[in-house]
Amino acid sequence: MLGRGAPGSSRGLLLALLALGLLPRVRGVEQEPGSAHEESQGFQVVTFKWHHVQDPYIIALWILVASLAKIGFHLSHKVTSVVPESALLIVLGLVLGGIVWAADHIASFTLTPTVFFFYLLPPIVLDAGYFMPNRLFFGNLGTILLYAVIGTVWNAATTGLSLYGVFLSGLMGDLNIGLLDFLLFGSLIAAVDPVAVLAVFEEVHVNEVLFIIVFGESLLNDAVTVVLYNVFESFVTLGGDKVTGVDCVKGIVSFFVVSLGGTLVGVIFAFLLSLVTRFTKHVRIIEPGFVFIISYLSYLTSEMLSLSAILAITFCGICCQKYVKANISEQSATTVRYTMKMLASGAETIIFMFLGISAVNPLIWKWNTAFVLLTLVFISVYRAIGVVLQTWVLNRYRMVQLEIIDQVVMSYGGLRGAVAFALVVLLDEKKVKERDLFVSTTIIVVFFTVIFQGLTIKPLVQWLKVKRSEHRDPKLNEKLHGRAFDHILSAIEDISGQIGHNYLRDKWSNFDRKFLSKILMRRSAQKSRDRILNVFHELNLKDAISYVAEGERRGSLAFIRSPSTDNMVNVDFSTPRPSTVEASVSYFLRENVSAVCLDMQSLEQRRRSIRDTEDMVTHHTLQQYLYKPRQEYKHLYSRHELTPNEDEKQDKEIFHRTMRKRLESFKSAKLGINQNKKAAKLYKRERAQKRRNSSIPNGKLPMENPMPNFTIKEKDLELSDPEEAPDYGAEMGGGIEFLANITQDTTATDSPSGIDNPVFSPDEDLSILSRVPPWLSPGETVVPSQRARVQIPCSPGNFRRLAPFRLSNKSVDSFLQADGPEEQLHTTLPESTHM
Amino acid sequence: MGAAHSASEEVRELVGKTGFSSDQIEQLHRRFKQLSGDQPTIRKENFNNVPDLELNPIRSKIVRAFFDNRNLRKGSSGLADEINFEDFLTIMSYFRPIDTTMDEEQVQLCRKEKLRFLFHMYDSDSDGRITLEEYRNVVEELLSGNPHIEKESARSIADGAMMEAASVCVGQMEPDQVYEGITFDDFLKIWQGIDIETKMHVRFLNMETIALCH
Asked: What interhelical angle do A531-551 and A578-590 show, nearest 10?
């Protein structure tokens, strides 16, 4: 079901985007003729005020074009799998720029440094910081720092000096440049660009160590770039002969001030942010805003103090992530995640497109073949030499050696990007005489690295057989052992009396637990924050989801999909993701008959469907609509509130109960009590039954049956005869809880374990199987329970329209109550969900 | 090194046995003496002198591992009362990083050794099987560092992990089949694909210059 959830949701998103984008445009078009007609009249009913909206309008249109282009690229999977998106966007920018130029002969749209540094860069860097895999990052921090600092200085110096050397030899002809200009150019062209690296490496999937080294370098070298750039720019301004040794020393000092200061600003703001999110319990709806605003303030603050802004916002993200994720509600966490990704990816798209557009401007082009070509050669060669030299040093200290292959990828992955471009555009033509040459060269370098290297790095990685990142399923055992390792290693370091990584990590985590978490985390969050618990929740959730998928596969799909005229809206379709809700319905439906899945086909299907989807969404749906049906009717429109959140205690309860159930099933399996045999027998029988049923095309479907609810109800009633009623209720509750077990940050992966094996499937199966519902007995066709029939006509249009009021009262228990006389039997059901 | 001239023969022997460099052995020896209070052997109580160890939630398991005959390669079960320096080195050598010059087979062997150490820590009754009880025990201790996690949660997690292990190791089970515990082979299976070599090592043992902190 998840498989269908994802495309559905993304389609919905795109539709919304399209609608948003198109609306103004359409209106504009309509207004145009109207205004022309009414021009002569005294009072104008409709006026055409283009200048009034021009600027934001054009911005919105550009964003729209870039987004549409992105859709266009992804229409063809072939193209995007070969050509990186960034390259495509640059080409698109060139084309668009060409069109604009042909129409206007003015390059009116360029990537200005202000826009880039203030609006486009921060989201990307914040995204990088906030989702930084901290352990990996800090584990390789030494390596990253070496590459970022020494590597960048090396690149800047060698490139600048070599170019100067060639210039002296006269190969470049007559240029009005001095040594300092060359060094300035070297310093701005030296830095590996985070935006470009991220854009290209995300598609390449090299192993995580390699990725974090290249990416970390590109983030942290900002401080070096900023300092070098500022130092040389001021030197150029001063004039070469006036630079003294004192200035050089000042430059070095300023490096430490800029980098450490930037980091410090980031950490302080991260602290503030974490502290603020601790107290946002009653303003859930603006909670996500804090994350963005405070991080952005860290960026601006350090910019104001002329510290490294990128470092500040990176470290703000890195440091706050743990506490923020623990403090904010799940909904907010999802919002933050999606908003951040959306902003970052949008900014990235715009950057690359505008890089392309900016290049179409004959006024900035000044060609010097020798200079351009030599720059390309030097940056590539010196990057490679630098990497090899540094790696040689590093490998003497590193545990995990960096192989030759890694070094090749690292040298080749040194992409230059928009940062260099923005910096070079910032140069003052009065001070730097050959600014235009620098600009053109930078554009060429950026295009070359992003397009050519971006295009070839994938084949290169494949050809070199670079160790790829493996997408691992989170395993409970792995986490547990991992935890054990951490403790063992720190103990060994303690015993042998030495300070190592593990020692430091151990001390840090103790400090964190004792002080930081106490200050920065909500009390409730402190409890539930444990990685192992998270993984456990995650696995539980996955189990639940696979049940859904399984139920769906077994045919509930058919009647859910079939259009029904029955308007008894008992099922919530109030999310824009109908498929997940369908699934939850089918879960409900099928849990009575769901057995564990054994055949490979279903496994395969499940795997795909789960992997493809963001299970957060599912989780939300499941949690909102299954577990807490009662609370939904309180839910009227409010700007300040989303859903009542009071599930801390509930969650724990759920957790225990689920586990107890799992455990019981486990025990019974372990002890091999005869219930199993019975279950197995029934299970087989049921499967046989299934097979028979599957040949019956859902003949008895609601719309053909004028009174569907009553017939079914009776059957359901048979199932819940007085004696079993409470049990049944509890069992339903169990099922629901099972679904409601959640993790906060789940990445959709699949665990084939847990449910494949009848023995280890949660006990719902066993108890259900041991009691075959009457309507399942041989000779009868499978008739969907009443819940399946109460399906609303669902189309994207009407579910959106219906959403608010359906949210208000149509929840799971509403249809139970709608059952009339039999109501009281069924009320056990919602009750149990509240235990 | 100068101080150890008299024992240089012995040191050389230990280098061959444990794979540590003689410098490292010197360092560890100094530490050993510090721990034992200049005695030739260490007893369990000596580990109480390590202040940082106290916060470690599984410290008893770790200390126990030092005296486990299986880890000391002295027998298939039981605990030693005291260990001498050689035994101490033997235990430490489980944490030696993998040598880059090793070939594939040696790496595998080394990996197995490391895993065996871990396995022994879990399998406290030395019957070659990690039973549910034993697993729970470890998990409880592991999570005891977090005061907010109750015992019951820890148990649930252990149960979940056990189920996972069973499904990984046995795959499809007959309904009445019973999974009794994780054997060492199963244990290896669980660890398949996990890069233990880069995890289970102590970095400084590789370095030539060691910073002593005590």
From this structure: 80
